[in-house]
Amino acid sequence: MRILLIEDEMEMAAWLVRALKQSHIAVEHAADARMGKALLASGTFDVVVLDLQLPDQHGFEWLRDLRAKGQHLPVLILTAQGSLQDRVQGLHRGADDYLTKPFELPELEARLVALHRRSQGRAQALIQCASLRFDSNHQTFWLRDAVLTLTPREHAALEALMGRIGAPVSKSRLAAKVFPQDSSAGPDAIEQVLHRVRRKLQGSDVHIVTVRGLGYMLEALPAAQDDHAG
Ligand code: CA
């Protein structure tokens, strides 16, 4: 999951970026409304977390502009203004959820996951490719019946591939998911991460293939031939 956080309080933003990263949620931070628009135009995000009191534009106006462009991306408003009136107004203006500061991190995470899932519509909470399963509610991969232990980068790469089973995912898209804070991460860095993921899938019925010029693709291996047959 990839979050766009628009928040001018730097301490709060830095804490959120760090904390969500621990939960495998990638965050790009914009310190004002204008930067938020620029980031949104240049990347793919699953949910926007929007502060209301921004230095250059009120969050409600930012939200109105977003919806005016026909963008249905889920938006969670995060603000110190906790009055019922603000809450109602926010929802009327096209926010999908509302959380008042101070808040508990697990609550924010749960709401982000729920918004993301809801926005995916038909998308299932459980994605499966042969014996590899991904439980998006719990952000956990299972291989056969054991939890697959992955570093945050490996997790991000496999999640991106798992989102398009049987279709290639470009290196640049993978890089955006795996190194969201570092646009200078080169193809070699992605290759190293994928190399480690491949090793963890070794011996299973799932593999990552390189599709020349297009990127990488997760697919199930054909059922093994029985050598002793016939
Ligand atoms: Ca603010």
Could you explain the architecture of this structure?
There is one protein chain. With 230 residues, the chain is an alpha/beta fold. The chain folds into two domains: 2-122, Response regulator (Rossmann fold, 3-Layer(aba) Sandwich), CATH 3.40.50; 127-229, Arc Repressor Mutant, subunit A (Orthogonal Bundle). The protein has helices spanning 10-22, 33-42, 59-68, 84-92, 105-119, 152-162, 171-178, 187-201; strands at 2-6, 26-30, 47-50, 75-79, 97-100, 126-129, 132-135, 140-143, 146-147, 206-211, 215-220. It has a five-stranded parallel sheet, with helices on both faces. A four-stranded antiparallel sheet has the order 6-7-8-9, with helices on one face. Strand 8 and strand 9 (146-147) form a beta hairpin. Helix 6 (152-162) packs across helix 7 and helix 6 (152-162) packs across helix 8 (187-201). It is elongated. It starts with a strand and ends in a 10-residue tail after the last strand. Bound molecules: calcium ion. Calcium ion binds at residues 8-9, 51, 53-54.
For the structure shown, list the relevant keywords.
Rossmann fold, disordered C terminus, Arc Repressor Mutant, subunit A, 5-stranded parallel beta sheet, binds calcium ion, 4-stranded antiparallel beta sheet, 230 residues
The stretches of 5 or more residues where confidence is low (pLDDT under 50) are: 226-230
Please provide the count of β strands. 11
What is the CATH C level class of the largest domain, in words? Alpha Beta
| Percent of residues in beta strands | 15-25%
Instruction: State the helicity in percent bands.
Output: 25-40%
Identify the bound ligands: calcium ion
How many distinct folded domains? 2
